[in-house]
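Subject: sequence -> structure tokens, single chain

Hey, anyone have a minute? Need the predicted structure for the following. Not urgent.
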Amino acid sequence: MSDCLFCRIVAGEIPAKRLYEDERCLAFADINPQAPVHLLVIPKQHLASTAHTTAEHAGLLGDLLAAAAKIAVEQKLANGYRIVINTGPDGGQTVDHLHLHLLGGRHMGWPPG
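Reply:
Had a minute. Here:
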């Protein structure tokens, strides 16, 4: 999608601090970090949100989680981390491209808000 911020990052049209990339996923630093480590893990394929996924996306969703786990090891988050997926306006999603927030480097309280 040419007007999607994250699609433009995937295409290299917008710079981002890329920390992980494979054939299906890309991870980069969040520009408004909420923790010492705050990365976004996105599919290279445009999907607006989890509400737009079907059973055919199960492999891709698994790849996103596996990438987040691998990145957590690389970022030395052995004490733990949080993975958040916001969906829709009431869920706090601000960019209409499915993405996981990987947060770590500090204690995460509960409930999150």
